[in-house]
Write a structure and sequence with these properties.
- With about 230 residues, the protein is α/β, with parallel strands linked by helices.
- The chain is built from 6 helices and 11 strands.
- It folds into 2 domains: about 60 residues, no CATH class; about 150 residues, Zincin-like (2-Layer Sandwich), CATH 3.30.2010.10.
- It is about 40% helix and about 25% strand.
- A 4-stranded mixed beta sheet has the order 1-2-4-3. A 4-stranded mixed beta sheet has the order 5-6-8-7, covered by helices on one side.
- The protein is flat.
- Bound molecules: zinc ion (ZN).
- Zinc ion binds next to loops.
């Protein structure tokens, strides 16, 4: 049975259990509920209403996570670069160092034939890092000037659970390396989001108001980021 509340579907399954169980699953924020046979539909509804805030908050958290697909880094695989889809082409070179280049709608990865998948991944991500740094360098500096903030320190790292973070006290920003895969508008949303944490450390009304002042369409950009 599926119960739809607002725009969220809750899958309800009857089971031989005691008590009701509710869970929100990654990557798409699916809501599932296990219910004992003796509980009425009315009670299920009441329970969902009671837990509604928790459901919404959990979905926000799950949907805000970057998705990690397993990849093998072989020819023919699809890879994103700033929101555009490219086909990976792995080419063997017998000598010299590895390199990555964009040619038309392909990302060419040139490496020695014995290069492992793990190493191919590392080579691609080194290249992603260099490209992302070029974009962030310009974007962060532009936004610092625009919002009148003093310089910050920033770095990039592959992260599983967030696109970025900010330690306001130390003026340190950290960005997820996976941002090299998303459209630039979304990278900009993350940059402005983290820079705004220098002024407001939570996600309350003051934070949202400042985001709207700085980047009026930030909600659209966040939505786009969540759909990736
Ligand atoms: Zn935040």
């Amino acid at each position: 049975m599926t119960i739809r509340i607002e725009d969220i579907d809750v899958e309800v399954e009857r089971k031989m259990i005691r008590g009701m169980r509710l869970a929100v699953y990654p990557p798409d924020g699916r809501v599932r509920m296990s219910v004992p046979f003796y509980i009425s539909e009315r009670e299920v509804q009441d329970f969902l209403v009671q837990k509604w805030q928790w459901i919404c908050r959990s979905r926000e958290k799950v949907l805000a996570r970057p998705r990690n697909k397993s990849r093998e880094y072989v020819s023919g695989e699809q890879h994103l670069f700033f929101g555009k889809r490219y086909t990976l082409q792995v080419e063997s070179v017998s000598s010299g160092t590895h390199e990555v280049a964009i040619e038309g709608d392909q990302i060419i990865l040139r490496c020695r034939p014995q290069t492992t998948a793990e190493r191919r991944e590392a080579i691609l991500y080194e290249w992603y890092r260099a490209q992302l740094h070029l974009v962030l360098e310009q974007m962060v500096n532009e936004w610092l000037v625009r919002i009148g903030e003093a310089p910050v320190e920033w770095s990039t790292r592959r992260m599983k659970s967030e696109w970025g973070s900010c330690i306001a006290r130390k003026r340190k920003l950290l960005f997820n390396l996976e941002l090299a895969r998303v459209p630039r508008e979304c990278v900009e949303y993350v940059v402005v989001h983290e820079l705004t944490h220098l002024a407001v450390q939570n996600h309350g009304p003051a934070f949202k108001a400042l985001m709207t002042e700085r980047l009026p369409d930030w909600k659209e950009r966040r939505k786009q980021l969540r759909l990736l």
